[in-house]
Specification:
Blueprint (H helix, E strand, L loop, with lengths): L2 H9 L18 H13 L1 H6 L2 H16 L4 E5 L1 H12 L1 H5 L6 E5 L17 H11 L6 E5 L6 H12 L3 E6 L5 H5 L2 E4 L14 H20 L16 H15 L3 H10 L4 H10 L3 H10 L4 H9 L1
Parallel strand pairs: 1-2, 1-3, 3-4, 4-5
Helix pairs in contact: 4-10, 5-10, 7-8, 11-13, 12-13, 13-14, 13-15, 14-15
Length: about 300
């Protein structure tokens, strides 16, 4: 594609549109710019709401694959790639996911998290290599993320993953995108032109963050990683999370502090097991066995003790 062709393609995208009414923004008072930017951001949740049926369908498909041992892999370039890596990196401490169970690929590798890697986003071949390094299987899901919906790295990742039999999701911020067309589940959250022309780390980035939050969080809810709205699979890897673990057991059981400490000790610090120990009156090994038999779903394990 020539530079002229690329320019014409970009000019046709909603996310790249120029807004002449904002041509004097640099002359406005700071507070007025802040109000304007805040007003722009306020429309993002409505754009996401318009795509909730597609988002929900994708989540159910992802959860079904992950319940069979599949992985969730995000692939993107620039801001989109960084958001995928961010979402993936927060799953182990929040939901106690196994290493690699949720992964983020960014065009150009880890270096691209903090600096621009020239040309990386233009390489569909690089996406194929990155996915092949993960040995993508049919049980896995690959989510391509691109504000424009045309980024070769994201589109290439989805096309390659689909050829391997994996589930594919394409998340973009333009209608009729190549990315959504390439994926089984296309999610196009149209937030409109940006405050700064083409700066898709703004509204488009916010929209992508909201959707990725939904994809991972609701998938984990479906997988039994929560009990009600409590993060019962939280990994207590620091003092704050250890304190949160105690509070979660307290909220779930209403037990006194001494009983909570005993249960957590017997459960080896595992919140879900500790709750089962308290509520079902079982010991640590029995709690672990019940959870294994229920596929990690605490409600099902509790129901099993009531039989």
């Amino acid at each position: 594609m020539t530079s002229h062709d690329l320019r014409n393609q970009l000019e046709s995208l909603t996310t790249e549109a120029f807004r002449p009414e904002l041509a004097e923004i640099d002359r406005m008072p700071t507070l007025d710019i802040a109000r304007l930017m805040n007003g722009e951001d306020a429309g993002v949740p409505a754009a996401v709401a318009a795509r909730l049926p597609q988002i929900a369908a994708a989540i159910d498909a992802v959860a079904e694959r992950m319940a069979r041992g599949g992985r969730l892999v995000y692939a993107g370039a620039g801001t989109a790639g960084r958001l995928g890596v961010l979402d993936a990196s927060e799953c182990p401490p929040t939901f106690n996911t196994e290493p690699g169970q949720v992964a983020g690929l960014i065009a150009g590798g880890p270096e691209a998290m903090v600096t621009s890697v020239e040309g990386a986003e233009d390489s569909a071949e690089l996406a194929c290599e990155d996915l092949d390094a993960l040995k993508i299987r049919p049980e896995d899901t690959v989510v391509g993320v691109s504000a424009s919906g045309r980024t070769p790295y994201a589109v290439g990742a989805v096309e390659h993953a689909r050829s391997l039999g994996a589930l594919t999701v394409g998340l973009s911020c333009n209608e009729h995108s190549a990315l959504a067309a390439a994926a089984e589940h296309g999610i196009e959250v149209v937030v409109g032109p940006e405050l700064l022309t083409g700066s898709t780390r703004l509204k488009a980035g916010t929209a992508q963050k909201l959707v990725l939050n939904m994809l991972s969080t609701i998938t984990m809810i479906r997988l039994g990683k929560t009990y009600g709205n409590l993060m019962v699979d939280v990994r207590a890897s620091n003092a704050k999370l250890r304190a949160r673990s105690r509070r979660i057991v307290s909220l779930a059981t209403g037990a006194p502090d001494e009983e909570i400490e005993r249960a957590l000790t017997e459960a080896g610090g595992e919140v879900k097991n500790a709750i089962l120990i308290v509520l079902a009156g079982v010991d640590g090994p029995r709690a672990a066995r019940l959870l294994e038999e229920s596929g990690g779903h605490l409600r099902a394990a509790l129901a099993g003790t009531a039989d």
